[in-house]
Amino acid sequence: MPGRIEDYAVIGDLQTAALIGRDGSVDWLCLPRFDSPACFAALLHDESAGHWRIGPAEGGPATRRRYRENTLVLETEWDTPDGTVRVTDCMPPRGEAADLVRVVEGLDGAVSMRMDLVLRLDYGHVVPWVRRHDGDLAAIAGPDTIWLHTDAPVHGQDHRTVADFTVGAGQTVRFVLTHQASHLPRPQPVEAHTAIESTDRFWRDWMDRCTYDGRWPEAVRRALITLKALTYAPTGGILAAATTSLPEQLGGTRNWDYRYCWLRDSTFTLQALLGTGYRDEARAWREWLLRAVAGDPATLQIMYGLDGTRRIPEQTLPWLSGYEGSAPVRVGNAAADQLQLDVWGEVLDGLHLSRESGVAANETAWDLQRALLDFLEGNWEQPDNSLWEVRGPRRHFVHSKVMAWAGFDRAVKAVHHHGLDGPADRWLAIRDRIHADVCARGFDPERNTFTQFYGSTGLDAALLLLPRVGFLPWDDPRVTGTVDAVRRELCVDGLVMRYHPQQDDNVDGLPGTEGAFLACSFWLVDALHATGRRREATDLFERLLGLRNDVGLLAEEYDPVSGRQLGNTPQAFSLVGLVNSARELSGTATRTTASATDQHTGPS
Ligand SMILES: OC[C@H]1O[C@H](O[C@H]2O[C@H](CO)[C@@H](O)[C@H](O)[C@H]2O)[C@H](O)[C@@H](O)[C@@H]1O
């Protein structure tokens, strides 16, 4: 049985990531990339879909675990009646091949250990052929070979590889699992202890570049390390999360594949990284973006594969029962074909932010922005699927229109403040038309709130972002009215639902419901802070910190009733929310969105 979502820690090598439960079992790993088929998919079924457990023979959860300070090296410890043992796990930043390194170390007494390796390629589907080569194991299936190099005595048993051994104080037993394409020669295995030390150094060096000096430094640093772990180093692409199909409702069907690069999520991640000193990542992301969206801006997708791949068709994997029975398990994501107008605005805002932050200008980037503006000019009046990717009918979502406004606003500023070339007066006029349209059709004066879409009876937590992008000032009564309405109508036990799915005739077109959306809850922290309710903002922020798991990770959502994390994990959206709110509350936030002096000055 897989653990709770919050039972999982993550390790990764900037090309893929493994999730490790409190019982020492790797229950999720895709090789060689984040979006490759999993060789351990127990998370979405049970151990027969592949897992790799190393722990005391008696089983059970660890007594404690932690990351080594400022690193992605995980240490899991068990106190047993016979002694204490530690397993150290890491994935060294990629050299010749992907390696997963696990070292067992006796700390006290002598502990009987068991290793249970069940390799199932293609998401639990394919049992590999296992052969011995010079004392190591090679598991071969189709395009993949997975090598196991260890000094433990392993043997095969019922299509799995097991080892029973005892570690005494001061003894270590090493395991290195390496992936290689099956047509290539065996890669040089890394030495486990050396790999742990070099991984440790890599992450410490990366953390040394962090400029964050505000409150809650450990939570912010852990979030930043995790965001970095969600970047795909070869291309600079930024993932939404490391998993697919962890459910938004236990037992439900809201199960999606997040192992791709959403322009929206990446832009938000960029804000958090730029605001904490990580300019190289911002540059790499911009270059990724320019390559991914090259071509006709009318064919811009809201998301791409890690290398900018456009086709990520959605399929279901019927042989997997799903996390706690939450089926179907999906790979690929049909949202890639949706129209989500906010994305144009977010990309324009993200590139504006890079410019404002002094990340060197690039002529191609401005050409792209002009092309995006041309598209937006002809399409901002279209209904769309919104940032929530609704699968119901397209509507005139207020947040989408406001982000179109933000796109033109940033374009005008690019001309006025940065001397770039463009028809600023025309853009200004469109900007003001959008503003007037939203204020006339997207605001309900009787309820004193903006609405989810034109004519909607529902609300949307994304409305909390309107003042952040400068659409109206925080003290505008329409903004304070909307913040109050979100609190009144969308909060469950103080946490924020992104909207009520059943509202407006089932706005998202999906069955079931979902948990509180953690990113939105961080947006409420920022809104409370900006509207002068600072104590409440801090209280909510600290409550959200308390929802992180024991190693500081957050999934997409949280169910206040069962007290469990829900959805894909670790999720960039949630962690970006944490970093940005910490910066706001600490007063260390530099401009990542329009400041008060940049607020809208046109009509309405
Ligand atoms: O709820 C329906 C949609 O859920 C997913 O989208 C959500 O995750 C995205 C990645 O973090 C995020 O950008 C989006 O705002 C969220 O709504 C899923 O990917 C969609 O396919 C699905 O329709």
Helix content: 25-40%
Separation of termini?
57 Å
Structural class from helices and strands? alpha+beta
Question: Which CATH top level class of the largest domain fits?
Answer: Mainly Alpha
Task: Let me know the largest β-sheet.
Answer: 15 strands, antiparallel
- What CATH architecture of the largest domain do you see? Alpha/alpha barrel
**How many helices in DSSP terms?**
14
Query: What compounds are bound to the protein?
Result: the ligand OC[C@H]1O[C@H](O[C@H]2O[C@H](CO)[C@@H](O)[C@H](O)[C@H]2O)[C@H](O)[C@@H](O)[C@@H]1O
Let me know the average pLDDT.
Answer: 94
> Total domains, how many?
2
Under CATH, the topology of the largest domain can be stated as Glycosyltransferase
Strand content: 15-25%
Radius of gyration from the alpha-carbon trace, in angstroms: 24 Å
* Low-pLDDT windows of residues: 591-597
Total beta strand runs: 28
**Shape from CA axes?**
globular
What's the arrangement of secondary structure elements?
Layout: E1 9-12, E2 17-20, E3 25-30, E4 38-40, E5 51-56, E6 64-67, E7 74-80, E8 83-90, E9 98-118, H1 121-124, E10 129-133, E11 136-141, E12 144-150, E13 154-157, E14 160-168, E15 172-181, H2 192-208, H3 217-229, E16 231-232, E17 237-238, E18 261-262, H4 263-274, H5 279-292, E19 303-304, E20 315-316, E21 330-331, H6 342-356, H7 363-379, H8 398-418, H9 424-441, E22 443-444, E23 449-450, H10 477-490, E24 491-492, E25 495-496, H11 503-506, E26 516-517, H12 518-530, H13 534-545, E27 557-559, E28 564-566, H14 572-586
Antiparallel strand pairs: 1-2, 2-3, 3-4, 3-5, 5-9, 6-7, 7-8, 8-9, 9-14, 9-15, 10-11, 11-12, 12-15, 13-14, 16-17, 18-19, 20-21, 22-23, 24-25, 26-27, 27-28
The protein binds ligand LLGJG24Q.
The site of ligand LLGJG24Q has 14 residues, from α4.
